[in-house]
Every structure is written in structure tokens, then in C-alpha cells.
Amino acid sequence: MRDAYTVELTLYLQFFLGLVAIVNPIGILPVFVTLTSHLSEAERRRTAIHANIAVVVILMVTMLAGQLILDMFSISLSAFRVAGGTLITFIAMSMLQGKLGEVKHNKAEDRESAARESVAVVPLALPLMAGPGAISSVIVYASEYSAPANLLGMSVAIGLFGLMSWAIFRLASVIFKLLGQTGINVITRIMGLLMLSIGIEVVAAGLKGLFPSLL
């Protein structure tokens, strides 16, 4: 029984750390500071709260409805793993090259979002935080570990991730001053390396499912 609990806790910890690496809230700090530079401190705090609530809701809905979406389009989990892992790997390579912002949103989206009063949901929550990589990862985990107990555990992990991300955003100005742009870039590249490893693992698992006789 204790071994079963250990396996489950390891799963939830791996899921949580995967979200941290893929979303990389510290790496998004420069974007958050830039998008909220025209806001007061109180408005910046509200934006951080609303953005992370939106991220939690998006990931929760993805976790619960992801398999239904795959079934609707007759997409196998193995094929989605290859596609999602490839996407995660692509984003990770861009993070390693310091081009995170260019991957998650383009210049046209920047101009559009700058014209809006609130940036909490778009582009912060979607697509900067709950982007394709995070959504792909959540769907893969939820499809593979679909037992109610596992879904509950992953829901708790998503909630804890939202709290951690909010705390980082809450201290955005302080952390940015302490780390500086160089420190942020270093952390982004470390997260990119971890994310690259996750992407390769996901692709390998998908290929094994698609071509069991070859691997």
C-alpha cells in the first residue's frame, strides 16, 4: 500500500514539475511586467490573480474533456503524443535560444493585446501560459492516468501550480530586479532543457505505441 502511495505521489510530482517546466512562469515575468507596466500596483495584482485563475480553469477543462476531444476527431493517444511531444520539443528549442516570446505569440497578437484594457486572459493566460505545450501535456497525462483518484490528484497539482505561479507574479517586480534580464534568460534556458527532455520522452512513448514492432 505504501508503495502504491509512493508511485501516485511521484506521478503527481512529475506532472507538477512538468507544468512548471512547460509554462515557465519565471520566464514569462518580463512579458508580465511589460504588459502591466501601465497599470497601478493594485491593478497589477488583480491581473495576476485573474490570469492564474484562468490558467487553472483552462487546464482543468482540458484535463477533463481532453480525451473526449480526441475521441471526437478519432485521434489516437499515441498520435497525439507524437504531435504534442514534437510541439513541446519545438518550444523547448526556442526557449534554449532565448526566443520564448516569439514562439508563444507573434507581433500581430502583441499589437492586438496592447490595445486591450485587460491582458489577464489574453495573452497572459492563453496562449502564453496555458499554451499548446501545457495543454498537450495535460491531455496526455489525463488520458494515460484516467482513474478518478488520479484526476483528483492532478487537479490538486494544477491548483498548487496556479498558487505558485500567482506568488511568482505577485513578486514580479522584486524578482525581476533581483535576477535581471540575464538571470531570467538563464532560468528560461534551464527550463527549456527540462522541457526538451519531457518532449523527447513523450515522442518516444508515442512512437512506441504507433510502431510497437519497431521499438
From TrEMBL:
Q: Does the keyword Transmembrane apply?
A: yes
Q: Does the keyword Coiled coil apply?
A: no
- Protein name stated in the entry: UPF0056 membrane protein
- Transmembrane stretches in the record are 12-35, 47-69, 75-98, 119-143, 149-169, 190-211
Alphabetically ordered keywords of this record:
Cell membrane, Membrane, Transmembrane, Transmembrane helix
Q: Which organism is it from?
A: Ferrimonas pelagia
Species classification? Bacteria, Pseudomonadati, Pseudomonadota, Gammaproteobacteria, Alteromonadales
Q: Which NCBIfam families does this one have?
A: NAAT family transporter, PRK11111.1
Q: What does UniProt give as the signal peptide span?
A: none
Cellular localization per UniProt: Cell membrane
The family this protein is said to belong to: Belongs to the UPF0056 (MarC) family.
Q: How does it sit in the membrane?
A: Multi-pass membrane protein
